[in-house]
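Weekly puzzle thread! Below is a chain. First person to post its structure in token form gets bragging rights.
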Amino acid sequence: MESDKLYRVKKEDLPKLEELLNICFAHDPLYETLIPDPDVRKRLMPELFHCDMDEFYETCEIFADSEELNSVLVVSDETESYNLFHFLLTEAKATLQNDLYLIKEDPSFHTFYNFIKGGDYLNSSWTQQLHQTKRLHIIYLAVHPRMQHHGMAAMLMDEAIRYAQEHGMMISLETHNEKNLEFYKKFQFKEYGILKKNFKSETILSDPGISVRVCFTKRGICYMMYNTQKRGPVISEISASEYFVEASIRRDCVLNTLSNTLFNPCSIPCSTPR
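Winning reply:
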């Protein structure tokens, strides 16, 4: 992706962006579900965002509103050529570092297990079912709380859509916060599917002389969305949501069902994205 309007983030900007993401996602439903212990979450999230920024700086495009870095847009342009060996090496390094942080901050392996169980929330493998090589995937779109409601998020999204329109590309993204749906739908995004999964968690309720361990279940949720800039039907009108009601059911069967019933080769360009 290219933009004359946005600031292209430099290597030396990454620490400030890590701080920005840590602030913006401090109460994100995804991280509160995967990392239920607030103390572990407080220690772990800056380390996870450090891994993300190091990886995405090498494999994606990172933009901000300006050098002040009040917002961030991370996109993966699937039309751009890339060095496969470098891509896989960078991804493997980030995965290893990420896992080490998970174990270091929570030696009980509870958080580590949650991240394994929540793998479908943490990758964009669902986009393979879109059968689009000309696609722009939005990984992060975040604005500092003090700068929200000033049109900054809209400006970032407008630039992504402009680039996609000029190049005839589809845009895809995920959000784990239901409050974001209205914003994306204003830009003509549609829900492709909803991924839900239950996570067991526990907390300790304490009163003077009493300590009670309470187990409960939290439901993680991921909304998968797309926006096509191409003319004509791209995706069948059949809703994918019904196939993604519970991610704990046989996922391979779900994806095969989607491939056989949702995608008609006559209505979708036959191509395989990376």
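Puzzle host: Confirmed. Bonus trivia for everyone else. The beta strands are 7-8, 61-64, 71-77, 135-143, 170-175, 190-207, 210-228.
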